[in-house]
Amino acid sequence: MGPTSTSSSAQRSRGRPRKMAVPEAVTTALRLVDEDGLDSLTMRRLAAALDVQAGTLYRHFATKQTLLAAMAEEMLAGCAGPLPDGLTWREQITELAGRLRMALLRHRDGARVHAGTHSVGPNTLSYTDTLVGVLRETGLSPEAATRTALTIVHFIVGHTLEEQAAQALAESTELPATLTLLHAALDPGTYPNLAAAEATLTSTDFVGHFAHGLNLIIKGLAGE
User: Of 1, 104, 185, 203, which sits 20 to 30 A from 79 (CA to CA)?
Assistant: First the structure.
């Protein structure tokens, strides 16, 4: 009876599901995206990486979209930290916008992970609340400040989507062919303005592109 009882206990131990912490799942999912890109992330692959059953994962994340929202929330950690003293409202907006862009750039496909998510976590809500607060200090109503904040966030996410896509293209073997096709298509007689700006169209100065676009929004707020 003794050996049989011990054997049954061992079997129950071996069959006990591994416990999973939500933060561990989120950081593992981000690691998998960093390694192989967002398209490779599936609930099944994440469960395997965590050494848990898929059902365990679904108990915490009902859908993949829920998981993406948690990943987006984790990426924004620290973005709403205290702003440096003495900044003008323009500089505060620039600082907050730069923080979000860098948070997305820290992870492969970070902008794609964030796009379309609706996190209600403290990192996301604190960041948005801080941005809206800065905009309200310019005299905007709560509604106008919120709409403006959304415009700024959409610009940041859209810009970073393009930036990360361009980075992926630059790391592939397709870039030379793509540039050749673009150069051939920009006939000065047909597209004189684009042909004159070919160097800008193909520029990888994303810091400059970002600063230019954000400055246009800020100038609009200032009525310039």
Answer: 203
- pTM above threshold 0.70: yes
Tell me: the pLDDT tens digits for 152-183?
Answer: 999 999 999 999 999 999 888 998 999 999 99
Q: Return the CATH fold of 2-62.
A: Arc Repressor Mutant, subunit A (1.10.10)
Split at pLDDT 50, 70, 90, the class of 224 is: confident
Provide the residue ranges of all domains of the chain, joining segments of one domain with +. 2-62, 89-222
Question: Looking at this protein, which amino acid is placed at residue 167?
Answer: Q
